[in-house]
Amino acid sequence: MSTSSNGFRRLRFSDEDGTDYDAIFSSEYRGSEFFTETRVAPGTRYEYTVVGDDDLSLRTMRATGGRRTGVIGPREDHVVFWLSQGTLEMHFADRVRVVRPGAPYIASASEAYRFESEETVYNGVHVADRFLRTVARELGYRQPDGPLLFAQQDEVVARREPLRRLLRELTPALLDDRVQGAMRTALNRRLAVVVLDTFPLRDVDDDVPLANRLRDAIRHIEDHARERPSVGAIAAAAGLGERSLQDVFVRTLGVTPSRFLRDHRLDEVRRQLLHGDTTDGVIDVARCWGFTNAGRFAATYRERFGESPGETRAAARGPHGTTGEPSARVRQAMAFIAEHAGEHLTVQAIADATGVRPRRLQQLFQDECGTTPMAHLRAVRAAAVARAERNAADEIGVER
User: Fold this and answer.
1) N or C terminus: fewer CB in 10 A for the chain?
2) Beta bridge partners of 105
3) Under 8 Å CB-to-CB from 294, ≥6 apart: which residues?
4) CA Rg, the chain, in Å?
């Protein structure tokens, strides 16, 4: 555990060090009502970590072995989180939301709710309400007279994972104790901007939240990709100026609208080649998506996917395309994961062992298995734990 005078802190609570489960919420959520109504099943395990300062912090929670219930009252920060395991029911005054692994969810600071969770593992970002309001004013966003209330991301935006993309870039610095003061504030601001850009604000009268404009821009690109719309046409479809469109794409998705359009067209070519949606040749598919220069297309395709279009086509016609078995690269990655599951693994390490780029590995797992390398790793580890518990139970039974 470490803290500093400017608010930076690194905290860890765990059943292993004897910290009472309720103490986590006593120190982090400041709500006595929560503690009196919380019930924890016997024998549960948990770990809760906090790294960050008063403006923004990264949180992780692993709470397994039982079902937890409680009430969380209004807070001083907004929480964006992703479940990687388990389920969470959030009971608000006017609605019930069931959260499952996958898309992000935002809980607005002013909203109280009762929760029920089971076997949950999640990662979250807590952003102070006052800090978010300051950033919103700097961006010129209209804010409601009352509390900041957020709607959830549209699926069109959520599947692009703008916040997680930025977190992958910034997390090493955010976890570094030496990054404090103005440098940390600048990193926090980048994350706060993406939250404001991609989660629509409610109760802003006739204003259309920028998050909805971003959604409309992405949808226009996806619907008209074959026509290669201009930046001006995309901006008009979203109700933005070209400069504003450029700004929001770069800060939320890390690319310009033109690059986003090109990458989407490449993704569609690859999807057709990999899944055999057409009997046309590679060049015909490429032309269908607006790639008229064969040499330039092949180079940009290899740059994005780490292999040539012909190699993608060959893989689709191989054993994977006919038997449903994973390709040789995915099988190699799975074998590496199984052998090193007990070690600290990253997507980069698995990709290096497999001989492909991380982005390519992610795409292969998603296309062939409907999951990700890290989700597969977690499943392998969970299976190993279950086997160990069964073996232990069997041994106890034999001793008896």
Assistant:
1) C
2) 81
3) 283, 286
4) 24
User: DSSP letter string over 349-387?
Assistant: HHHHHHTS-HHHHHHHHHHHHSS-HHHHHHHHHHHHHHH
pTM of the model: 0.76
Question: CA-to-CA distance for 352 and 340, rounded, in angstroms?
Answer: 13
CA 230 to centroid of chain Cα atoms: 29
Nearest to 22 by CA among 3, 5, 6, 44: 44
- Are 67 and 93 in contact by the 8 Å Cβ rule? The answer is no
- Give the contacts of 209 (CB within 8 A, at least 6 positions apart): 151, 200, 201
CA atoms within 13 A on the CB side of 256: 8
- Which stretches of the chain score pLDDT less than 50? 1-5, 31-38, 319-322, 398-400
For residue 107, the model assigns a pLDDT of 95
Structure tokens at 58: 């990264």
- Determine the Cα–Cα distance for residues 132 and 82; give it in Å rounded to an integer: 20
Backbone angles phi, psi at 151, to 5 degrees: -95, 170
Cα gap 275→37, rounded to integer Å: 51
**Structural tokens at position 60:** 């992780």
- State pLDDT tens for residues 17-66: 766 667 676 667 654 444 334 455 566 778 899 999 999 999 999 888 77
SS3 9: strand
- What are the pLDDT digits (tens) for 241-273? 999 999 999 999 999 999 999 999 999 998 888
Q: Which helix (H) or strand (E) holds 268?
A: helix 257-275
The pair of three-digit structure tokens given for residue 112, joined into one six-digit string = 């109280």
Phi, psi of 365 (to 5 degrees): -65, -45
Give the separation between CA 239 and CA 217, rounded to whole angstroms.
Answer: 9
Spatial CB neighbours of 6, under 8 Å, sequence gap ≥ 6: 53, 180, 181
CA dist 163 and 252 (Å) reads 7
Nearest to 107 by CA among 87, 79, 131: 79
Amino acid identity, position 392: A
- Tokens 């598919």, residue located: 285
DSSP 67-108: EEEEEE---SEEEEEEEEEEEEEEE-SS-EEEE-SSS-EEE-
Query: What contacts 375, CB < 8 A, 6 or more positions away?
Result: 84
CA dist 125 and 207 (Å) reads 26
